[in-house]
Amino acid sequence: MDILEKLEILSDAAKYDVACTSSGITRNAQAGKVGLASVSGCCHSFTPDGRCITLLKVLMTNECVYDCAYCVNRSSNEVTRASFTPQELADLTMAFYRRNYIEGLFLSSGVAKNPDHTTELMIQTLRLLRNEYAFNGYIHAKAIPGASPELIDELGHLADRMSVNMELPSQESLKLLAPQKNKQRILTPMRHIQQNIATDHETRALTRTRNTYYPNKAPTKKTRAYAPAGQSTQMIIGATPESDFHILNLSAALYKHLALKRVFFSAYLPINQDARLPQNDAIQLNREHRLYQADWLLRFYHFDVSELIDQDKPFLDTEVDPKANWALNHLDFFPVEVNTAPLQDLLRVPGIGPKGARLIVQARKKSCLKEQELRKLGVAYKRARYFITCNGTYGGKGISFTPEALRAQLAAPIDGGRHGRRADKCLAGQLSIFDCIEQEHGSQTLPQSHAQTLPAPTPILGAEQADGLFGWQQAILHPEKVRA
């Protein structure tokens, strides 16, 4: 099998890893090295499913000893298998970079033989790129759960960002769909990476504090920072009945206690025939979209999970975005006067983002802001006008200031654009998640759920079924109590 055939197979198999975003790190060009990294990234290419990328996104191998129900590369699937050698992948990456096809590398892999063997192959590839080819561009590497800490350490010093896929939001779901994986094997490397990043950061901060005499000549050898762009993770949503309330609380715990840079949500796609899995698409893609919006509010708008969702209504509204939904439920907070409101209040207004809020605070020092000025500052005035006043004048005249009337103005179907997964039509008969299936799998039983129609989501698992509502969070906070 030649290189191009391998590339076709392994790049297509890698498209289900959702992590092609901004790099999170800036690194300027250096003499004698090839490439650089920009914090914002540069998207100029599309994958077959519509994702805009700038990275060579590929698997080391699609051979895998695991048999996860949702994975296209599972050992029981009859698919064409291929593997890169470290030299082949390093040469391919450099050839694509020199042709200006890519800006960096996203490297994941199936588990060939065992986690240590697979990680060693990835390390050999990155070592060739960094040391032999002096590649200084962005590299994102997937850490394999179960690999030895020493190998994780070495991989972290070669990559800019690392990630460990959490896969599913509860231990019970892992037992059902990925019986060879468990909570401990996933959280252990995540915690190890977090501790190494923190230690490396503290060490470098201390060396920059020159309390003692240092020679003018810089040290001849500098060690690379450990995963300077941090770590991320990914979980599949829609393959199991955990609620949005469950998922968002887990995401918040990951940000707070493991210092993750990003949690990615991957809407389940029916790529395997398995009675344990749902066979729907469009509903979960819309749900993925709302989860990303809520996740953005947690990270950049200083919202708390309890403000966006609660256990009584454990799923996000599909008709209005989470921020607008919060505003409709808290009309006593509005309208906000844009010329006097503090920054935190402006961030609560639908249609005003972090950048727009900061620009408003700066601009109002020089002039009184009205509709025209707000539009120039990038505010989505069409949405914001129902929740603001400009110098005492309410922008939403003609519309009753009630939740029902405002909801009618803000509610809109999710537009997936003309390309990508959400542009595809959902096939007839695929509108139920489990369709009242009860299927035995070993000692595990898939819980029943009622047939659903839009926008009603899957019911939440009970505490005894879902490893406890906060099972993952407890494992993050108390690693000594983690059970396999």
Please tag this protein with its features.
484 residues; alpha/beta; Rossmann fold; 3 domains; six-stranded parallel beta sheet; three-stranded mixed beta sheet; 16 helices; 13 strands; 35% helix; 10% strand
Q: Could you describe the largest sheet, including whether it forms a barrel?
A: 6 strands, parallel
**Count of separate DSSP helical elements:** 16
Tell me, briefly, the overall form. Answer: globular
Number of strands: 13
Strand content: 5-15%
Content-based structural category: alpha/beta
Give helix % range: 25-40%
- Distance separating the two termini: 40 Å
Low-confidence parts, pLDDT < 50 over ≥5 residues?
A: 40-44, 425-466
Physical arrangement of strands within the biggest beta sheet: 3-4-5-6-7-8
Instruction: Provide the number of structural domains.
Output: 3
Order of helices and strands: HEEEHEHEHEHHEHEHHHEHHHHEEHEEH
Mean pLDDT value? 82
Supply Rg.
Answer: 24 Å
How would the blueprint of this fold be written?
Layout: H1 3-13, E1 45-46, E2 52-53, E3 55-59, H2 86-98, E4 104-108, H3 115-132, E5 138-142, H4 149-158, E6 161-163, H5 171-177, H6 183-208, E7 231-237, H7 244-257, E8 262-267, H8 282-300, H9 305-308, H10 322-329, E9 336-337, H11 343-346, H12 354-363, H13 371-376, H14 381-384, E10 388-390, E11 393-394, H15 403-410, E12 440-441, E13 444-445, H16 471-477
Helix pairs in contact: 2-3, 3-4, 4-6, 7-8, 7-16, 10-15
What does this structure look like?
The protein is α/β, with parallel strands linked by helices. It is 35% helix and 10% strand. Strands 3-4-5-6-7-8 form a 6-stranded parallel β-sheet. A 3-stranded mixed β-sheet has the order 9-10-11, with no helix packed on it. It is built from 16 helices and 13 strands. The protein starts with a helix and ends in a 7-residue tail after the last helix. It is globular, with a radius of gyration of 24 Å. The model is unreliable at 40-44 and 425-466 (pLDDT under 50). The relative contact order is 0.10. α4 links the parallel β5 and β6 (161-163). The chain has helices at 3-13, 86-98, 115-132, 149-158, 171-177, 183-208, 244-257, 282-300, 305-308, 322-329, 343-346, 354-363, 371-376, 381-384, 403-410, 471-477; strands spanning 45-46, 52-53, 55-59, 104-108, 138-142, 161-163, 231-237, 262-267, 336-337, 388-390, 393-394, 440-441, 444-445. It folds into 3 domains: 1-163, Rossmann fold; 168-203 and 225-312 and 414-484, no CATH class; 322-410, no CATH class.
